[in-house]
# Entry
Amino acid sequence: MADQDSAGSPGSRGPRPPKPSASAGRPEKSWVRRQCALLLRRHRQAQKAGQLFSGLLALNLVFLGGAFICSMIFNHEAVTLGDVWILLAVLKVLSLLWLLYYLGGTARRPQAIPHRDPHAGPLWVRGSLVLFGVCSAILNLFRVGYDVGHVHCKSQVQLVFPILEVVFIGVQTYVLWGHCKDCVQVQTNFTRCGLMLTLATNLLLWALAVTNDSLHREMEAELTALMEKFTGNGTNTCLCPNGSVCKFFQKGYLMLYPFSTEYSLITCAVLYVMWQNVGRRPPQLLAHSPPAFRLHGAIFGPLLGLLALLAGVCVFVIFQIEASGPAIARQYFTLYYAYYVSVLPAMALAALLGTAIHGLEERELDTVKNPTRSLDVFLLMGAALGPLGISYFSIVAIAATRLRQPVHGLILAYSILLVAQHLTQNVFIIEGLHRRPLWTERETERAGVPHAPRRDSVLELGHELRRASLAYIYSYSHLNWKRRALKEISLFLVLCNITLWIMPAFGAHPEFENGLEKDFYGYRTWFTVVNFGLPLGVFYRMHSVGGLVEVYLGA
# Structure
C-alpha cells in the first residue's frame, strides 16, 4: 500500500504510467497534413514549371518572328515579305490544330473544366472580339479582291495567305467566345503551350501589321501611275484592269486596316487570361454577380456625354466627306483638332474630380487577388503608351520646326491635352477598380449579420431592425452625393470615350494626313509610329469604356 501511495503521490519520483492522451491520433493527422502540404507544394512547383516553359516557348517564337520582320525591314532583298508570310502561315496552322484539339478533345474530357472565372471574358470583351474578328475577316476578303484584280502581274500564291487568315480568325474567335472563362484542370502543360503558341502568333500578326506598309505604298504607286498615264507618261506599275472595283477594295482595306491590329491585341489579352487560369481554382468569394446596368442616379453626365457624342459625329462626318477627295483643306484639320481641344480638358477635369471623390470615400480597398483586374490595369497602362507616343512625337516635331500657323498650335494643344487626359483617366479608373463595390459590401454585411435567436422577444427584434434601418438610411444619405457624382462622371467619360473611339476607328487619320510629322520624320518612320500608336489608342478607348462601366456599377 505504501508503494502504491508513494507511486501515486504527487511528490514521488517513481515512474508514472502513461496517461491516455486525447491527442493520440495527432501524429497520424499531422502526417496527413504534411503529405497534403507536400502534394500541394509539388503541384504549385509543377504549375510554375509549366508556366515557365510555355512562357519561354512564346518568348522564343516572338523573338524568331521579330527577327524575320526586322530583317525584312532593313534588308528586304534577303528576307522578303513572302518569307515572313510563310513563317506566320506555319504558326497559324499549328495554332489552328491546337484550337481544334482543345475544342474537340481537352474541353470535352470529364472534369476538364470544373471551374470558370466569373471575371474573365465580360460581355463587352467578347462582343469586341467578335466585332473586330468579323472586320478582320472582311479586311482579308478585301485583300483577296484586290490581289485578284492584280493577278495578271502578281503571284497566285499570295491569295493563300489571306484565305488562311480568314479561317484562323473564324476558328479562334469561336473558341475564345465559348471558352474564355475556362479554368482547365487536365493536360495543363499542353494547354499552356497551346495558348502561348496562339498568343505569340497573334502578337507577330500585330507586329507585321504595324510595320508592313507594302500594300499602302503599292496603292500610292498605282495612284501615281494612273495620274501619269492620263498625262501621257506611262509606267510599268501593275495596274488594275477594272479601276472602280479595285478602288472599292482599296477603300475597304484602308478603312478596316486598324481593326486587324485591334483584333490581334484583344485576342492576346483573352489568351493571356486563359493562360493564367489554367490549373487555377478561383475562390467562391469572387463569384458575386454585379447588379444589372441601370441609368439611375445620373442625369447631367449622360446629357453632356450625348452632346459631346453628337458634336463628334458631326465633325467626323464633315471630315470624312472632305477626306474622300484628293486633298483635305486646312480648315477641316482646324475643325477636327478644335473639337478635341474642347473635349479633352472637360474629360481631364471630370477624371480629376472623380479621383478626389474616391479619396473622400469610406469604401475599403479590394485586396483579393484577381488576375483579370490586374490584367485590366496592365492593359490600360500599356495601351495608353500608343497615343502618348504619338503625342510626344508631335510635340517634338512642332517644337523643332517652330511653326506658327493656327492649325499647328491646335495640334500642339491637342497633343499636350491628350497626355493629361490619359493620365488623369487612368488614375480615376484604377482607383475605382480597386474599391470594393457597394453591392458586395451590402452582401457581406447581410451575410455577417447573425440571425436573431428564436427566444428573443419581438420587441428586441423590432428594436434591432429599427436600429439597422436608421444606420443604413444615415449611411446612404451620407454617401449619396458621392455616389451620384461618381455615376455622373463615369457615364460622361463613357460617352466621350465612345466618341473618341469611333472617330479614329472608322475614319481617316489626321495624324498621318496633316503632313507635319510625316515631313519631319519621314514616311516610313511616321507610318510605323502611327500604326503602332493608333491601334493602341483605339484599344485604349474601348478598354476604358469597360473599366468605366465597372466603376459606374460599383459606385
Q: What stands out?
A: Residues 26-74 form the longest helix (49 residues). The beta strands are 115-116, 182-183.
